[in-house]
Design brief:
It contains 7 helices and 15 strands. The chain is α/β, with parallel strands linked by helices and about 300 residues long. Strand 1 and strand 2 (about 10) form a beta hairpin.
């Protein structure tokens, strides 16, 4: 495909990360599959680059195209680093979630605004920093307000029941919650539950990329006493219906990505976060150079 590049790096406008059930993007023109080398290993899968109208679009299945990666096995740092290298300013995550509220039904769409971290596996790698490079980014509002507003506007133009706002609790998995855990999360005020939004959202913030989640509800988790617990079969069945909604949303998001309703500061996340002097002789600095290069004198 013909696309802008710097050296061997392609530049794209927006990246979609597909969750369970979404392993490819339809309606992509001029498709090319690329492998982006990263200091954090290989990405979940080669990144698909193509175009929708005049927009340069990237796509990657978070679990791999054959769904071969557990939530704790996903190479989150490699994925976000590669997306940063591709020049994407925006990431839209499509994720399957369970509902913790009666009014949020299977097949609904949620545009969450908050996250609760219940992950525990060190293998996830929740920061690009360390080993002599220190940064503390603000994460009070985990999602980009501009992208969230865009997704809301797109949801208003399709036949989908959606909820603007909500707390997403992220658990380690791969097991689903116990009933006691599910009710605990409800008592905390959580609205939906998933396994992959973290550390993905944290790493996107460190990389100064706008990030938002389109949460596709597949089940009621297991908090309803009159209902059987969630199962993989149930999730997969509802994902097939959710995919029709997600495909319509993706097309609308691409058509409207350049319309801004709300200002954001995602591209300045590190401006007041870096601590101490940055030593260019430090191997850790060189390792994450694409992330901090604009702050290096």
């Amino acid at each position: 495909m013909q696309c802008d590049s710097f050296g061997d790096i392609w530049l794209i406008d927006i990246m979609f990360i597909g969750g369970s059930g979404l392993y490819k993007l339809e309606n992509l023109g001029q498709i090319e599959e690329v492998n982006i080398p990263t200091p954090f290993g290989e990405t979940s899968d080669p990144i698909i680059i193509g175009s929708i109208d005049d927009l340069k679009v990237g796509f990657m299945p978070r679990h791999g195209k054959n769904h071969s990666l557990l939530p704790s096995e996903i190479p989150y740092r490699a994925n976000i680093f590669a997306i940063k290298a591709l020049g994407a300013d925006n990431i839209v995550s499509i994720s399957a979630v369970g509902s913790l509220r009666e009014n949020i039904s299977p097949l609904d769409v949620v545009i969450p605004d908050q996250l609760i971290d219940r992950t525990s596996s060190v293998s996830r790698g929740n920061t690009f920093f360390g080993n002599g490079v220190v940064a503390h980014v603000s994460f009070a509002d985990p999602y980009c307000p501009n992208l969230r507003a865009l997704i809301r506007r797109c949801c208003q133009n399709i036949d989908a029941n959606f909820h603007f706002g909500g707390d997403l609790v992220v658990i380690e998995g791969p097991q689903f919650s116990s009933r006691s855990e599910s009710n605990l999360y409800r008592s905390w005020g959580a609205d939906i539950i998933g396994m992959t939004a973290l550390p993905e959202a944290k790493l996107a913030r460190e990389a100064e990329i706008c990030y938002a989640t389109v949460a596709m509800v597949t089940d009621y988790d297991c908090w309803r006493p009159e209902q059987e617990g969630v199962s993989a079969d149930l999730v997969v069945d509802n994902l097939k219906n959710n995919n029709l909604i997600s495909k319509s949303l993706i097309k609308l998001i691409c058509e409207n990505i350049n319309i801004t309703e709300v200002a954001c500061n995602c591209d300045k996340s590190l401006e007041k976060a870096l601590m101490g002097e940055i030593d260019m002789e430090n191997e850790s600095v060189r390792k994450i150079h694409p992330i901090i290069e604009k702050y290096i004198q």
